[in-house]
Amino acid sequence: MINTETYKEIIRELGDKVTLVAVSKMRAVNEIMTLYNEGQRDFGENYVQELVAKQAELPADIRWHFIGHLQTNKVKYITPFVYMIHSVDSLKLLKEINKQAATNERVIKCLLQVHIAQEETKYGLDEKELEDITASIPKLPHVSVCGLMGMASTTDNPDQLRMEFKELKSLFDSSGDISSPSSFSTLSMGMSGDYITAIEEGSNMVRIGSLLFGQRSAGTNG
Ligand SMILES: *Cc1c(COP(=O)(O)O)cnc(C)c1O
Q: Is the pLDDT of residue 169 over 50?
Protein backbone atom coordinates (compact mmCIF):
# COMPACT_ATOMS: atom_id res chain seq x y z
CA MET A 1 0.00 0.00 0.00
CA ILE A 2 1.13 3.51 -0.77
CA ASN A 3 1.19 5.94 2.10
CA THR A 4 -0.38 9.07 0.64
CA GLU A 5 0.62 11.03 3.75
CA THR A 6 4.28 10.53 2.82
CA TYR A 7 3.48 11.78 -0.67
CA LYS A 8 1.80 14.91 0.67
CA GLU A 9 4.69 15.56 3.04
CA ILE A 10 7.21 15.35 0.22
CA ILE A 11 5.11 17.65 -1.97
CA ARG A 12 4.98 20.21 0.85
CA GLU A 13 8.69 19.84 1.48
CA LEU A 14 9.59 20.38 -2.19
CA GLY A 15 7.49 23.51 -2.52
CA ASP A 16 6.98 25.05 -5.94
CA LYS A 17 10.63 25.24 -7.04
CA VAL A 18 11.36 21.52 -7.18
CA THR A 19 9.48 19.09 -9.43
CA LEU A 20 8.77 15.61 -8.14
CA VAL A 21 9.10 12.76 -10.62
CA ALA A 22 7.49 9.73 -9.00
CA VAL A 23 9.57 6.76 -10.11
CA SER A 24 7.06 4.00 -10.83
CA LYS A 25 9.29 1.30 -12.34
CA MET A 26 8.06 -2.18 -11.37
CA ARG A 27 4.91 -0.65 -9.82
CA ALA A 28 1.42 -1.68 -10.79
CA VAL A 29 -1.00 0.57 -12.62
CA ASN A 30 -3.29 0.83 -9.59
CA GLU A 31 -0.40 2.08 -7.45
CA ILE A 32 0.32 4.78 -10.00
CA MET A 33 -3.38 5.70 -10.01
CA THR A 34 -3.29 6.21 -6.25
CA LEU A 35 -0.73 8.99 -6.66
CA TYR A 36 -2.44 10.28 -9.79
CA ASN A 37 -5.62 10.73 -7.77
CA GLU A 38 -3.62 12.78 -5.28
CA GLY A 39 -2.66 15.10 -8.13
CA GLN A 40 0.70 13.65 -9.22
CA ARG A 41 1.29 13.92 -12.98
CA ASP A 42 5.04 13.38 -13.49
CA PHE A 43 6.06 9.72 -13.44
CA GLY A 44 9.43 8.17 -14.25
CA GLU A 45 10.11 4.79 -15.84
CA ASN A 46 13.31 2.89 -16.64
CA TYR A 47 12.25 0.23 -19.12
CA VAL A 48 10.81 0.86 -22.59
CA GLN A 49 8.45 -2.11 -22.74
CA GLU A 50 7.07 -1.42 -19.31
CA LEU A 51 6.58 2.26 -20.07
CA VAL A 52 4.78 1.58 -23.36
CA ALA A 53 2.40 -0.87 -21.67
CA LYS A 54 1.59 1.49 -18.80
CA GLN A 55 1.18 4.53 -20.99
CA ALA A 56 -1.52 2.71 -22.97
CA GLU A 57 -3.48 1.95 -19.82
CA LEU A 58 -3.11 5.17 -17.85
CA PRO A 59 -4.55 8.69 -18.26
CA ALA A 60 -3.26 10.68 -21.22
CA ASP A 61 -2.32 13.73 -19.16
CA ILE A 62 0.49 11.92 -17.33
CA ARG A 63 3.91 13.37 -18.15
CA TRP A 64 6.15 10.34 -18.66
CA HIS A 65 9.83 10.78 -17.90
CA PHE A 66 12.22 8.18 -19.24
CA ILE A 67 15.06 7.87 -16.73
CA GLY A 68 16.75 4.53 -17.50
CA HIS A 69 19.47 3.63 -19.94
CA LEU A 70 17.97 3.98 -23.43
CA GLN A 71 19.06 1.87 -26.37
CA THR A 72 19.02 3.63 -29.73
CA ASN A 73 16.90 0.94 -31.38
CA LYS A 74 14.13 1.40 -28.79
CA VAL A 75 13.78 5.17 -29.03
CA LYS A 76 10.99 4.93 -31.60
CA TYR A 77 8.64 3.18 -29.19
CA ILE A 78 8.52 6.09 -26.74
CA THR A 79 8.90 9.16 -28.97
CA PRO A 80 5.17 9.38 -29.79
CA PHE A 81 4.32 10.27 -26.20
CA VAL A 82 7.32 10.64 -23.86
CA TYR A 83 7.50 14.00 -22.06
CA MET A 84 11.18 14.12 -21.14
CA ILE A 85 14.18 11.82 -21.58
CA HIS A 86 16.63 12.25 -18.68
CA SER A 87 19.21 9.75 -19.74
CA VAL A 88 20.85 10.99 -22.93
CA ASP A 89 24.39 9.69 -22.70
CA SER A 90 25.65 9.82 -26.29
CA LEU A 91 25.37 11.98 -29.38
CA LYS A 92 24.20 8.92 -31.30
CA LEU A 93 21.23 8.62 -28.94
CA LEU A 94 20.41 12.32 -29.12
CA LYS A 95 20.46 12.17 -32.93
CA GLU A 96 18.11 9.21 -32.94
CA ILE A 97 15.70 11.00 -30.59
CA ASN A 98 15.82 14.01 -32.91
CA LYS A 99 15.07 11.81 -35.91
CA GLN A 100 12.16 9.97 -34.30
CA ALA A 101 10.76 13.19 -32.83
CA ALA A 102 10.76 14.68 -36.33
CA THR A 103 8.79 11.70 -37.60
CA ASN A 104 6.24 12.37 -34.87
CA GLU A 105 6.30 16.12 -35.53
CA ARG A 106 7.39 16.76 -31.96
CA VAL A 107 10.15 18.51 -30.07
CA ILE A 108 11.21 16.30 -27.17
CA LYS A 109 12.71 17.62 -23.96
CA CYS A 110 16.00 15.92 -23.11
CA LEU A 111 18.49 16.04 -20.28
CA LEU A 112 22.12 15.08 -20.71
CA GLN A 113 23.16 12.47 -18.17
CA VAL A 114 26.51 13.25 -16.60
CA HIS A 115 28.64 10.68 -14.83
CA ILE A 116 29.26 12.05 -11.33
CA ALA A 117 29.42 8.88 -9.22
CA GLN A 118 32.63 7.13 -8.32
CA GLU A 119 31.20 3.79 -9.38
CA GLU A 120 32.17 2.70 -12.87
CA THR A 121 28.79 1.09 -13.45
CA LYS A 122 26.65 4.22 -13.64
CA TYR A 123 26.00 5.58 -17.12
CA GLY A 124 26.72 9.11 -18.17
CA LEU A 125 28.91 11.54 -20.03
CA ASP A 126 32.22 12.89 -18.85
CA GLU A 127 32.99 16.58 -19.14
CA LYS A 128 34.63 16.34 -22.55
CA GLU A 129 31.75 14.32 -24.01
CA LEU A 130 29.31 16.84 -22.55
CA GLU A 131 31.08 19.64 -24.41
CA ASP A 132 31.07 17.67 -27.65
CA ILE A 133 27.35 16.93 -27.46
CA THR A 134 26.48 20.47 -26.49
CA ALA A 135 28.22 21.73 -29.62
CA SER A 136 25.89 19.61 -31.79
CA ILE A 137 22.64 20.69 -30.19
CA PRO A 138 21.91 23.60 -32.57
CA LYS A 139 21.79 21.11 -35.45
CA LEU A 140 19.03 19.05 -33.82
CA PRO A 141 15.77 21.04 -34.00
CA HIS A 142 13.51 18.26 -32.72
CA VAL A 143 15.14 17.97 -29.33
CA SER A 144 15.09 20.61 -26.65
CA VAL A 145 18.06 20.03 -24.38
CA CYS A 146 16.78 21.58 -21.20
CA GLY A 147 19.30 20.54 -18.57
CA LEU A 148 21.41 17.88 -16.91
CA MET A 149 20.77 14.72 -14.92
CA GLY A 150 23.06 12.81 -12.62
CA MET A 151 23.13 9.96 -10.15
CA ALA A 152 25.37 10.18 -7.14
CA SER A 153 27.33 7.28 -5.70
CA THR A 154 25.52 4.77 -3.54
CA THR A 155 27.20 5.81 -0.33
CA ASP A 156 26.44 6.74 3.26
CA ASN A 157 29.14 9.38 3.17
CA PRO A 158 27.34 12.75 3.09
CA ASP A 159 30.48 14.65 2.07
CA GLN A 160 30.95 12.42 -0.95
CA LEU A 161 27.31 12.94 -2.02
CA ARG A 162 27.53 16.68 -1.56
CA MET A 163 30.73 16.87 -3.57
CA GLU A 164 29.18 14.95 -6.47
CA PHE A 165 26.07 17.13 -6.50
CA LYS A 166 28.19 20.28 -6.34
CA GLU A 167 30.16 19.04 -9.34
CA LEU A 168 26.97 18.54 -11.37
CA LYS A 169 25.58 21.93 -10.34
CA SER A 170 28.75 23.64 -11.44
CA LEU A 171 28.65 21.87 -14.83
CA PHE A 172 25.00 22.88 -15.11
CA ASP A 173 25.82 26.52 -14.41
CA SER A 174 28.59 26.56 -16.99
CA SER A 175 26.63 24.68 -19.71
CA GLY A 176 23.62 26.99 -19.72
CA ASP A 177 24.92 29.62 -22.09
CA ILE A 178 25.98 27.12 -24.76
CA SER A 179 22.51 25.83 -25.47
CA SER A 180 19.50 28.13 -25.69
CA PRO A 181 19.69 29.78 -22.26
CA SER A 182 15.98 30.21 -21.64
CA SER A 183 15.18 26.53 -21.94
CA PHE A 184 18.28 25.19 -20.17
CA SER A 185 16.77 25.20 -16.71
CA THR A 186 16.34 21.67 -15.37
CA LEU A 187 18.77 20.01 -12.99
CA SER A 188 17.55 16.48 -12.27
CA MET A 189 19.39 15.10 -9.26
CA GLY A 190 18.33 13.39 -6.07
CA MET A 191 16.59 10.09 -5.26
CA SER A 192 14.91 8.65 -2.15
CA GLY A 193 18.13 8.42 -0.18
CA ASP A 194 19.80 11.68 -1.13
CA TYR A 195 17.23 14.17 -2.40
CA ILE A 196 17.53 16.56 0.54
CA THR A 197 21.26 17.01 -0.07
CA ALA A 198 20.58 17.29 -3.81
CA ILE A 199 18.10 20.12 -3.29
CA GLU A 200 20.48 21.92 -0.94
CA GLU A 201 23.01 21.76 -3.77
CA GLY A 202 20.67 23.21 -6.38
CA SER A 203 18.50 20.42 -7.77
CA ASN A 204 15.10 21.46 -9.13
CA MET A 205 13.87 18.01 -10.14
CA VAL A 206 14.03 14.92 -7.93
CA ARG A 207 13.32 11.33 -8.91
CA ILE A 208 11.81 9.46 -5.99
CA GLY A 209 10.66 5.84 -6.05
CA SER A 210 10.99 3.69 -2.94
CA LEU A 211 10.16 6.48 -0.50
CA LEU A 212 6.76 6.86 -2.16
CA PHE A 213 5.94 3.31 -3.16
CA GLY A 214 7.91 1.28 -0.61
CA GLN A 215 10.94 -0.87 -1.33
CA ARG A 216 10.94 -2.58 -4.72
CA SER A 217 11.03 -6.33 -4.40
CA ALA A 218 12.47 -7.33 -7.76
CA GLY A 219 10.16 -9.29 -10.02
CA THR A 220 7.15 -9.53 -7.72
CA ASN A 221 5.59 -6.12 -8.09
CA GLY A 222 4.17 -6.46 -11.60
C1 LIG B 1 15.15 3.80 -9.66
C2 LIG B 1 15.66 5.14 -9.97
C3 LIG B 1 15.33 6.24 -9.16
C4 LIG B 1 14.53 6.12 -7.88
O5 LIG B 1 15.24 5.47 -6.91
P6 LIG B 1 14.70 5.36 -5.40
O7 LIG B 1 15.93 5.10 -4.61
O8 LIG B 1 13.73 4.24 -5.38
O9 LIG B 1 14.07 6.66 -5.06
C10 LIG B 1 15.80 7.49 -9.55
N11 LIG B 1 16.53 7.66 -10.66
C12 LIG B 1 16.87 6.64 -11.46
C13 LIG B 1 17.69 6.91 -12.66
C14 LIG B 1 16.45 5.35 -11.14
O15 LIG B 1 16.81 4.34 -11.93
A: yes
CB burial of residue 178 (10 Å; 0-12, 13-18, 19+): middle
Per-residue model confidence as pLDDT tens digits over 91-119: 999 999 999 999 999 999 999 999 999 88
Does ligand 1 have an atom closer than 6 angstroms to the CB of 183?
no
What residue type is 119 in one-letter code? Answer: E
Q: Which helix (H) or strand (E) holds 167?
A: helix 158-175
- CA-nearest residue for atom 6, ligand 1, is 209
CB distance 210 to ligand 1 below 6 Å? yes
Q: What are phi and psi of 174, to 5 degrees?
A: -90, -10
With a 6 Å cutoff on the Cβ, whether 2 touches ligand 1 is no
Helix (H) or strand (E) segment spanning residue 208:
strand 205-208
Tell me the helix, strand and coil percentages in the chain, rounded to 5.
40, 20, 40
* 127-136 helix and 158-175 helix, angle to the nearest 10 degrees: 30
Q: Atom 10 of ligand 1 has which residue's CA nearest to it?
A: 207
Closest residue to atom 13 of ligand 1, CA basis: 67
Mapping DSSP onto H, E and C, the string for 168-189 reads HHHHHHHHCCCCCCCCCCEEEE
Q: How far is the CA of 113 from the centre of ligand 1 (A)?
A: 14
